[in-house]
Amino acid sequence: MFRKVCIFSGNANPALTQEIVKFLEIPLGQIRVSRFSDGETFCEVQENVRGVDSYVIQPTSSPVNENFMELLIIADALRRASAGSITAVVPYYGYARQDRKVAPRTPITSKLCADLMVSAGVNRVLCVDLHAGQIQGFFNIPFDHLFSMPVMLENYIKRHYDSSAVVVSPDAGGVERARAYAKRFGASLAIIDKRRERANISEVMHIIGEVSGRDCIIVDDMIDTAGTLCNSARALQQAGARKVVACATHAVLSGPAVARIMDSPLSEVVVTNTIPLSEEAAQCGKIRVVSIARLLGEAIRRIHHSDSISSLFA
């Protein structure tokens, strides 16, 4: 009898994969991913996967191109080994912000990545908190979109705050996410109106909502350079907020992000382990990690047994 399901890990986040297989109580699939001296990636699946439902855990985080190419090569190896199905579990979807043409003669790289994954042999995709939900439409295969909100609520927010807190969206684009948190938590909602002058530079304008004398929880899908987040925290502090914390799914934390967080009024920044923290971020006393391994593991279990995924967020 062949094993019916197998989980493989790329090199992007092996610690998360270990947590997932521990939750599912199955062994980690045997695969070797290495690089030649010229930088080329090589992959060898070291067990029989003929007819096996295979899951590849690989966030396409920094170094984005290297991790994405690794995902494609693993998928191709599994396809050529006659795997029954190949599900790409991509907790963080790189290039998600390049989901439309922002100027003439520019690419839509997010769509290109989707096409490449399908061409490599991926049959299904599982992601967490896409930067833009419509990216699901770039795929002509089944796509399951998970949200870290239940993990954040149960493992952090409900343990430290009550409904007197204010859930804050750092920009107009994140209002739907912040509203969902506020509704589940029974808290009020505030919005920060900002104007971005150029890439990776943001300017806070004003706050819509009452934050004076209250605990403020900024929620976002990712923290990149932390400019928006830290400017938002300062604006809330100046508006009289008692305490400011942030919750974000993806800890991209590029450039001066960690230094900015340390110098900001933020009391704590809570992120998930979709992306492994850099050494600098791991040593930052303000950054706290909650695990989404159980959420991903349960989603994989339900996909394998053809059960509902949406009921995870009911």
Quick take:
With 314 residues, this protein is α/β, with parallel strands linked by helices. It contains 9 helices and 14 strands. 42% of the residues are buried.
Q: What would you say this structure looks like, in words?
A:
With 314 residues, this protein is an alpha/beta fold. The chain contains 9 helices and 14 strands. The strands form 3 sheets. A 7-stranded mixed beta sheet has the order 10-9-8-11-12-13-14, with helices on both faces. It has a 5-stranded parallel beta sheet with strand order 1-4-5-6-7, with helices on both faces. Helix 1 (14-24) packs across helix 9 and helix 2 runs parallel beside helix 3 (109-120). The protein starts with a strand and ends in a 10-residue tail after the last helix.
Helix/strand layout:
Elements: E1 5-9, H1 14-24, E2 31-35, E3 41-45, E4 53-57, H2 64-80, E5 85-90, H3 109-120, E6 124-128, E7 143-146, H4 149-160, E8 166-169, H5 175-185, E9 188-198, E10 201-208, E11 215-223, H6 227-238, E12 243-251, H7 257-263, E13 268-272, H8 279-282, E14 287-290, H9 293-304
Parallel strand pairs: 1-4, 4-5, 5-6, 6-7, 8-9, 8-11, 11-12, 12-13, 13-14
Antiparallel strand pairs: 2-3, 9-10
Helix pairs in contact: 1-9, 2-3
